[in-house]
Structures are given as structure tokens and as C-alpha cells.
Amino acid sequence: AFSRCVTIDEEKGDAWANMGAIYLRRHNYEAAYQPIKESLKVFRDSFRKWENFLFCTIELGKYNEAIHVLNKLMDLKHKSNKDLDHRVVGHVVECILNEYKNKIVYVLKN
Q1: 3-state SS of 32-98?
Q2: Which is more confidently placed, 77 or 53?
Q3: Element (H or E) spanning 80, and its range?
Q4: How many Å separate Cα 77 from the centre of its chain?
Q5: Phi/psi of residue 24, each to 5°?
Q6: CA distance linking residue 14 with residue 68, whole number of Å
Q7: How far apart are the first and last CA of the chain?
């Protein structure tokens, strides 16, 4: 139903967000990525939607984008008085460090 809705009107932010949320709950991050990204065109200041997008970017290994999303969440935190969970920030940093550590080990071995 959501797919049909967005093919009729691509600016239906709620439909994009709902479709992305369904994929996110099913841990299908690749499928969730684009719908959530589309929903952010309509809901630019939605803390929750940016959080969902952060989880997608991390799970997909898109760390440069995750850093951008984290910056956006920090900006929104100040505007909306929402709390950015320090565990989320720690997880982002840990994922990025692990990724780069793996690359360094690979380079050193080869």
C-alpha cells in the first residue's frame, strides 16, 4: 500500500517514512535506506526519522553519511530539546573505529 502511495505522489512523506520503518523493523536496512531518505525531504526536522536514518547508515557501513546524520541530530537536539542517547553516539564511534581498524590491519597484512 505504501509503495503504491509513493508511486502516485512522491512527496507523501508519511508513506515514505512508514515504508522505511517497516523495512527497518525487519532489519532490511538496504530496503529501508531510500524510503527513509525520501521521507527526510519532507520531514527535515524530525528527530525520530533522522535517528532511523542513522541506524540505516551505520548498518550499511555508510560511515561518512552517518557522521553527517549525527551532526544533524545534534543540531536538532538543541532546537527540539530532545536527548541524543550517548550510547548511540558511542555506537557510531565504535563502528567507525572498527571499520578503520579492519582496513589498517588488511593493509598491514598485504
Answers
A1: HHHHHHHHHHHCCCCHHHHHHHHHHHHHCCCHHHHHHHHHHHHHHHHHHCCCCCHHHHHHHHHHHHH
A2: 53
A3: helix 63-80
A4: 16
A5: -65, -45
A6: 23
A7: 50
Residue 40: which pLDDT band, with cuts at 50, 70 and 90?
very high
* pLDDT tens for each residue of 59-70: 998 988 998 999
C-alpha cell at 48: 525520530
C-alpha 70/C-alpha 93 separation (Å) is 10
C-alpha dihedral sign at 55, 57, 58, 60: positive
The span from the CA of 48 to the CA of 80, in Å, is 11
How many C-beta neighbours within 10 Å does residue 66 have? Answer: 23
Round to whole Å and give the CA distance between 105 and 110. Answer: 9
Q: Which three cell numbers mark 34?
A: 531510500
* Residue whose C-alpha cell reads 551505520 in the numeric block: 58
Cell of 15: 508513506
Q: pTM to 2 decimals?
A: 0.76
- Amino acid letter, 11: E
